[in-house]
From TrEMBL:
Source species, domain of life: Bacteria
Role this protein plays: Initiates the restart of stalled replication forks, which reloads the replicative helicase on sites other than the origin of replication. Recognizes and binds to abandoned replication forks and remodels them to uncover a helicase loading site. Promotes assembly of the primosome at these replication forks.
Organism the protein comes from: Allocatelliglobosispora scoriae
Keywords: ATP-binding, DNA replication, DNA-binding, Hydrolase, Metal-binding, Nucleotide-binding, Primosome, Zinc
Pfam families: PriA_3primeBD
Cofactor remark from the record: Binds 2 zinc ions per subunit.
Gene Ontology BP, a term: DNA recombination
Similarity field: Belongs to the helicase family. PriA subfamily.
Descriptive protein name: Probable replication restart protein PriA
Cofactor(s) the record lists: Zn(2+)
PANTHER family in the cross-refs: PRIMOSOMAL PROTEIN N
Quaternary organization: Component of the replication restart primosome.
Molecular function as annotated in GO: 3'-5' DNA helicase activity; ATP binding; DNA binding; hydrolase activity; zinc ion binding
Gene giving rise to this polypeptide: priA
Length: 701
């Protein structure tokens, strides 16, 4: 449909009025604007469609959020064009987007850009129906083999089941109750066998089957087939007549969950997996299937938290501590919080899941908003966790070449001899990502930009990791030495060392340069960086966690929590009875949590310490990053809540600085509104330097 001819503004009386969100990233324009709906667009200009409107003399994209009979403005302009009659923005997602924008001091237009993928016109066209001549011939009927009757379980029930959140806690406590009549086939047997390993697991599944909205934080047992457990919860919800949304961190986890749901549903026609890797056309096509109600379950990465699902009854997030769940575009929402807000609006069930537990998840438990689902003591002892510190390595000259203490050496050798693979987690990628002077141990840096020098192989010369300049003639500025030594060892160098220490076995690496999807059940050494550990058929016979200091010594508030998350994700891949060797001091609290497989204990300890010190999530923080003048101007325009603390400034590269604003949780909404209003003042004044405003930043330093 071509754009309409420009018309003068007309009185609002007599024609319907459309309330529109213009797609402009300017904080001072974060409000709805009224436009008249002309008669020729009355049928297609419905809530949720994409528009073109004239704004400040230009045609801009916009969203139609609602239609009203009248407007308080005397004269209004007309809508110029309806880009597509497809209503891709539901009222529920529009309300959710507004809540997310308000919580994170952002604009509605920015959140809608995250919630709805870009339009692909060809995907909106209905599929071509084959003619009679194009249809393949039907096979002849066999009287001895009658057609199987249709499976009624493959159709989603149409009736909606009322949810009673007030009974969630009592239901989760009643783990010995009987299965309601008519639900035994859905909850028991294969559907609930896996959840039976947990004290409140079967009760949680029964709550979903009954149409209730239980809220839980699930700490998975080692060796748990978590995609199968999530698929069971999603299937029970769908079979109760409601929809489900599940969010995972990366493509590998998405593929595993997609496969589990396909097996559970007996095909892929009842759910879709959304990912940016699909490409714009396929991603939008799958989005439309969910928007049109053709599927009842949507899984995907962080943007899928906004996926349109009718009659939402269940939301889940796996491994919520992974930083991939945090959006990198304004207003930087976290998928966990988006799902929690959505569940609150829709009165849906919640499952925050992972092998470990974040302080945010522990806060949900301690506040009483959610209940915890933990493995029993016997399930937590399915693997054996042992420690080996660096002192043992120093006393064992035979293991120095492989950087393995004796206990780790023996565990790897026994696993290989038994025909099982061995997983070795190395925190750093590359070969030698950091080198130092052999004589004085001074860190080697580039003479041009002062960047760190690194080696990419045993035959290469040192080069800068920042400017990529070679440093073949490097001379130490401190002592004049010309020899280099390794200060940090990467996964590729570790693979060489272990290959020499354990000859005769296949050595494979998995990391940023190439991620292995799976590993066969045969003796091999598999070295991987955190997050790239492949799943082994039957599990690993041994899991070795090396260079643990690299994770524990990070200058980060979440260093201990993140270290335990990465260790547990690797240790969970061990087979029952497998050995996990962590090269670290056994007296550290993080190592103790791993040895006891008790992430809840560490999360409770972390939350108590942060509450005492006033750190997230006990308090709410806002981060302001920009030039010193721009940050000062932003703070001067902000009406900070009572009791707000200013922390900083923190100097950053390129002349930038960061200021932190800390408030109590009760004043968080007031702070977000004040920061957004101040950003609107600066954008209206056309301030030259932007300030990045981020609520609840993952990094404070």
């Amino acid at each position: 449909m071509p754009p309409r001819k420009r018309r003068d503004r007309q009185p609002a009386a007599g024609l319907p009025v459309a309330r529109v969100c213009v797609d402009l990233p300017l904080p001072h324009l974060d409000r709805l604007f009224d436009y008249l709906v002309p008669e020729d667009l009355d049928d297609v200009a419905r809530p949720g469609v994409r528009l073109k409107v004239r704004f400040s003399g230009q045609l801009v994209d916009a969203w139609l959020l609602e239609r009203v009979a009248d407007s308080e403005h005397p004269k209004l302009a007309y809508l110029e064009k309806v880009v597509s009659g497809e209503p891709v923005l539901s009222a529920e997602i529009a309300r959710l987007a507004r809540e997310v924008a308000d919580r994170y001091a952002g604009s509605l237009a920015d959140v809608l850009r995250l919630a709805v993928p870009p339009r692909h016109a060809a995907a909106e066209k209905p599929p071509k129906t084959p003619t009679l001549e194009e249809l393949p011939p039907s096979p002849p009927a066999d009287p001895a083999d009658p057609a199987e009757p249709a499976d009624p379980s493959r159709h989603v029930l149409q009736q909606s089941v009322a949810s009673d959140p007030l009974q969630d806690h009592a239901l989760l406590q009643n783990v010995t109750g009987t299965v309601p009549a008519g639900r035994a086939g859905r909850v028991g047997g294969a559907g609930g066998a896996g959840w039976g390993r947990y004290a409140a697991g079967e009760a949680y599944l029964r709550a979903l089957a009954d149409g209730r909205a239980p809220r839980a934080v699930w700490s998975a047992a080692p060796g748990e087939d978590w995609p199968a457990r999530l698929a069971e919860a999603i299937a029970v919800t769908v079979e109760s007549g409601r929809g489900a949304v599940a969010v995972v961190a990366d493509a590998r986890d998405l593929d595993r969950l997609d496969e589990a749901l396909t097996v559970r549903f007996g095909g892929g026609d009842r759910h879709v997996a959304l990912s940016a890797a699909l490409g714009p056309a396929e991603r939008y096509r799958r989005f439309l299937r969910a928007s049109r109600g053709e599927v009842s379950a949507v899984i995907g990465n962080r943007a899928s938290a906004f996926a349109p699902v009718a009659a939402l009854g269940f939301v889940a997030i796996w491994d919520d501590g992974d930083d991939l769940h945090s959006e990198q575009r304004s207003p930087y929402p976290h998928a966990r919080q988006t799902l929690l807000n959505r569940a609150q609006l829709a009165e849906a069930a919640v499952l925050v899941a992972g092998f470990t537990r974040t302080a945010e998840g522990q806060q949900l438990v301690e506040s009483g908003w959610a209940r915890e689902i933990n493995p029993g003591r016997d399930e937590a002892r399915r693997i054996v966790v042992q420690t080996a510190d660096d002192r043992q390595l120093a006393r064992d000259p035979a293991a120095v070449s492989a950087r393995l203490p004796s206990v780790a050496w023996e565990a790897a050798r026994e696993s290989l001899r038994a025909g099982a693979p061995v997983l070795v987690q190395v925190p750093r990628r590359g070969y030698l990502p950091s080198v130092a002077c052999q004589d004085c141990r001074e860190r080697a840096r580039c003479p041009h930009c002062a960047g760190p020098l690194a080696l990419t192989s045993s035959q290469s010369i040192a080069e800068c990791r920042w400017c990529a300049r070679p440093a073949g003639g490097y001379t130490c500025p401190r002592c004049g030495g010309r020899r280099l030594r390794a200060s940090v060892t990467g996964v590729r160098r570790t693979a060489e060392e272990m290959g020499r220490a354990l000859p005769g076995y296949t050595v494979r690496t998995s990391g940023r340069d190439g991620v292995l999807p799976t590993v066969t059940n045969e003796p091999a050494l598999v070295l991987a960086t955190p997050g790239a550990e492949p799943v082994a058929e039957g599990g690993y016979g041994a899991v070795l966690l090396l260079d643990t200091w690299a994770l524990l010594t990070r200058a980060d508030l979440r260093a201990g929590e993140e270290a335990l998350r990465r260790w547990m994700n690797a240790a969970a891949l061990a087979r029952p009875g497998g050995r996990v060797i962590v090269v670290a001091d056994g007296s550290l609290v993080v190592v103790q949590a791993l040895m006891r497989w008790d992430a809840a204990w560490l999360a409770a300890r972390e939350l108590a310490e942060r509450r005492e010190l006033g750190f997230p999530p006990a308090a709410r923080f806002a981060s302001l990053t920009g030039t010193p003048a721009a940050v000062a101007e932003q703070l001067a325009a902000t009406r900070l809540p009572t009791g707000a603390d200013l922390l900083g400034p923190i100097e950053l590269p390129d002349g930038q600085e960061r200021m932190l604003v800390r408030v109590t949780r009760s004043h968080a909404a007031e702070l977000a509104a004040a920061l957004h209003a101040a950003a609107g003042v600066r954008s209206a004044r056309k301030a030259p330097d932007a300030v990045r405003v981020q609520m609840d930043p993952l990094e404070l330093l």
